[in-house]
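thread: overnight batch results

M.L. [08:02]
morning all. the overnight job finished for the chain we discussed friday. pasting input first so we're all looking at the same thing
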Amino acid sequence: MTGEELVTRAEAAAANAYAPYSRYLVGASVLARDGRIFDGVNVENAAYPLGICAEKTAIGRAASEGLKPGDLEAIGITASPCGGCRQWLHEWRIGRVWFRREDGSIAEYEPAGLLPDTWNLPDS
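M.L. [08:03]
and the structure it wrote out:
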């Protein structure tokens, strides 16, 4: 699956986001190495820090199906990931990160390119 296809899928998923406060709908689609795709959306809460990002819900769905760090090949996101999500992408060892830039183009990164100084697990 190409980055464009994964981001387009994330854009479709974003329609299901729950963002009554910011009205900023975000979607993410994570591609597992076995070919499965897990979609996620941002979910806001009136207590702002308690909301969750689309990347986290997509990775959480994959984890709920038994996947572990290293099992996820790529992720497509409707926007550049926040700092906290960049750590998630690194820790889950996602190989490629694609997101739509403001100008409509698709950005492609490895997680280390998005967060050069990360916290590593002891066995990483």
